[in-house]
Amino acid sequence: MHHDTPVGGHRGRWKTTELVTRNYWWLGVTKEVGRYVDGCDACQRYKNRSEALAGKLMPNAIPEKPWSHISADFITKLPLAQGYDAILVVCDRFSKMAHFIATTERTSAEGLARPSADVLSVVAMKCAILLNLSHTTKIASYP
């Protein structure tokens, strides 16, 4: 009656509480009105945001050589296979080459850093060799 009607106007929790307490009062009226307003679908969809608008999106830097910019992500919740239930995917943004490292969801950051560093150092050596031979060798990359 005080919040959802055209006269009430979805004015928020404090204004609705003030309108309700003009005519009614019970123990916990503020909490109950607050819960009702917080659950109002129209208020959640159309309410004004108090934080500042996000700035313009800036593009990522374009890599100039392989393995200078990488991205990493986990694929988790996989069925257990040979003791592993997750995959760490490390992708080079320049060549789109990807490496997949079997791991578990419970692996700590330190435990994950050791095999990742070993794999990436081997990958970096491969890239250096391929770059040196690139004038004679065609390097396959994924689209």
What layout of secondary structure does this protein have?
Layout: H1 13-23, H2 29-38, H3 41-46, E1 70-75, E2 86-92, E3 98-103, H4 109-132
Antiparallel strand pairs: 1-2, 2-3
Helix pairs in contact: 1-2
Structure overview:
The chain is an alpha+beta fold and 143 residues long. The chain contains four helices and three strands. The protein has helices at residues 13-23, 29-38, 41-46, 109-132, and strands at 70-75, 86-92, 98-103. It has a three-stranded antiparallel sheet, with helices on one face. β2 and β3 form a beta hairpin. α1 (13-23) packs across α2. It is elongated, with a radius of gyration of 28 Å.
Key features of this structure:
alpha+beta, disordered C terminus, 3 strands, elongated, 4 helices, three-stranded antiparallel β-sheet, 143 residues
Biggest sheet strand line-up: 1-2-3
Spatial separation of the terminal alpha carbons: 59 Å
Give the % helix. 25-40%
> Strand portion, in percent?
5-15%
Please count the helical segments: 4
In the predicted model, the low-confidence regions spanning at least 5 consecutive residues are: 128-143
Q: What value does the average pLDDT take?
A: 76
Question: Can you write the helix and strand succession as a string?
Answer: HHHEEEH
Biggest pleated sheet: 3 strands, antiparallel
Global structural class:
alpha+beta
CA radius of gyration is 28 Å
Shape call: elongated
Q: How many strands?
A: 3
